[in-house]
């Protein structure tokens, strides 16, 4: 650990971050670069950032000795989470004194000291910055704490305004309304702004009063759906207030979840129709050929037609299974997790892969690989989806490598391809249901966008986690980590 913070490295690195942002850079690439700046300037072994949502957190970026943790979920009820989301915004803790699972894994890797700073906007915690050190005689000093707090504030501002302060409107009824309510004058300036309006828009009463509405005003009696700059959707209605004045009352509510459900439904229909059309068309074409030209076909032609029908039917069955699994809460069932030989399970699952994938596989599995704790039967689905993904985004015939290793608390395997790779800003989005890196007529790769979504669900139901990263030299590495048996 350095005696002093390398302020010149901090300033130079932060200048680069600002230039990235000014050039249009966003998301994980900028965040990861800022974490590298923090690690260098603070002399840390590793840095990580946990992004929080109402349902919990996830390590979305990490550097140095903490890179392995990318993708690791952080449950909202984890004792460490509860501890770090309260109290001082910047603090130093020992990971071996915390009870959370991630903290225990950090401690096992020798990362015993941690300076953590919450990234907050208006009292809302959007994430936490973690600066990690091995044990030593000199703990991080006040200067390093201040730098960590400053960098966490910088990260918070990258997220932009998320919510406003709750304030009281005029009267208990207006204040108690669940919907946002505003009263505007003839010029469209706000005269009344209730607490729900502040919560929905992120604008306090002081920020809203005597200013134009932050969204379009629909004609009286009409309903307008409007998308805010942060991506959320509002449904807005307006009407004239009775009396001699020219005031108009406006009500609005957040319908983002409804819009997302509608979008998912439309996307589900579009994806299923697109993906089902090809195998159904091929099956029908070959079946019609057999029916109409049986006598004129040779035995070889008949067998070929039957083989193609069988292949396409298998593709169709697998697609239907994936669609049904994504729509249901399908998991490993009620059976408790049990130790199993991961190496043996990977070899067995590889044998059952489609022939075109099986021929491209290179397995490099250590003989002394520890047992994993989970559900062995689900591993075949996980490996099939990861290998299918690797094969789809790489040249035909290129190798797909499966490797494995272990540490003190987890056992993992990696699927490595030499394909087109994955952009850093897509490593998390790739796990969203129905997400495709390309859309419309520009799509070069078939698929429903469900494979990685199912993999993450299956793995996390077994207290593991999965992540993607670009492969050195080109391609992608998908890594699955499971608890040791």
Structure description:
There is one protein chain. The protein is flat, with a radius of gyration of 27 Å. It has 485 residues and is α+β, with helices and mostly antiparallel strands. It starts with 6 loop residues before the first helix and ends with a strand. About 5% of the residues have low confidence.
**Rg calc:** 27 Å
N-to-C terminal Cα separation, in Å?
Answer: 35 Å
**How much of the residues is beta strand, in percent?**
15-25%
By DSSP (H or I, 4+ residues per run), the number of helices equals 14
Proportion of residues in helical segments? 25-40%
Strand order across the biggest sheet? 3-2-1-6-5-4
Can you summarize the main beta sheet?
Answer: 6 strands, antiparallel
Task: Indicate the multimeric state.
Answer: single chain
- Could you report the average pLDDT, rounded to the nearest whole number? 79
Number of strands: 18
Morphology call? flat
Sequence stretches where pLDDT stays below 50 over 5 or more residues: 161-174, 438-446
Structural class: alpha+beta
């Amino acid at each position: 650990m350095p005696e002093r913070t390398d302020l010149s490295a901090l300033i130079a690195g932060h200048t680069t971050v600002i230039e990235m942002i000014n050039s249009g850079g966003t998301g994980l690439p900028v965040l990861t670069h800022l974490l590298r700046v923090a690690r260098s300037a603070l002399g840390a072994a590793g840095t990580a950032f946990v992004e929080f949502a109402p349902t919990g957190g996830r390590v979305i970026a990490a550097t140095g000795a903490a890179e392995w943790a990318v993708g690791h979920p952080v449950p909202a009820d984890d004792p460490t989470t509860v501890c770090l989301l309260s109290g001082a915004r910047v603090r130093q803790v020992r990971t071996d004194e915390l009870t959370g699972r991630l903290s225990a894994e950090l401690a096992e890797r020798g990362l015993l000291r941690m300076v953590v700073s919450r990234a907050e906007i208006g009292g809302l915690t959007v994430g936490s910055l973690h600066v990690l050190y091995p044990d030593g005689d000199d703990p991080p000093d006040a200067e390093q704490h201040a730098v960590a707090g400053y960098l966490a504030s910088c990260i918070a501002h990258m997220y932009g305004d998320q919510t406003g302060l709750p304030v009281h409107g005029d009267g208990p009824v207006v204040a108690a309304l669940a919907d946002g309510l505003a009263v505007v004058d003839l010029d469209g300036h706000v005269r009344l702004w209730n607490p729900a309006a502040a919560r929905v828009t992120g604008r306090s009463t002081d920020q809203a009063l005597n200013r134009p509405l932050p969204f379009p005003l629909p004609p009286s009696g009409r309903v307008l759906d409007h998308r805010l700059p942060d991506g959320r959707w509002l449904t807005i209605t307006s009407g004239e207030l009775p009396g001699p004045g020219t005031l108009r009352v406006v009500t609005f509510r957040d319908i983002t979840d409804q819009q997302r459900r509608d979008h998912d439904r439309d996307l589900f229909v579009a994806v299923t129709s697109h993906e089902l059309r090809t195998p159904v068309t091929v099956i029908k074409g070959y079946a019609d050929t057999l029916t109409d030209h049986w006598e004129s076909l040779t035995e070889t032609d008949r067998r070929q037609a039957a083989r193609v029908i069988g292949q396409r039917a298998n593709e169709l069955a697998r697609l239907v299974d994936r669609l049904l699994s994504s729509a249901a809460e399908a998991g490993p069932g009620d059976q408790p997790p049990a130790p199993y030989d991961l190496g043996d399970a990977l070899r067995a699952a590889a044998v059952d892969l489609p022939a075109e994938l099986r021929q491209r596989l290179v397995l490099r599995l250590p003989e002394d690989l520890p047992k994993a704790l989970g559900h062995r039967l689900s591993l075949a689905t996980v490996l099939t989806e990861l290998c299918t993904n690797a094969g789809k985004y790489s040249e035909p015939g290129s190798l797909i490598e499966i490797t494995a290793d272990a540490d003190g608390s987890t056992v993992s395997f990696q699927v490595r391809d030499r394909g087109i790779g994955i952009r850093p800003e897509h490593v998390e989005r790739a796990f969203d249901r129905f997400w495709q890196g390309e859309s419309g007529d520009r799509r070069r790769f078939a698929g429903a966008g469900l494979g990685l979504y199912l993999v993450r669900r299956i793995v996390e139901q077994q207290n593991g986690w999965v992540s993607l990263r670009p492969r050195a030299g080109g391609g992608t590495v998908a890594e699955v980590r499971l608890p040791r048996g």
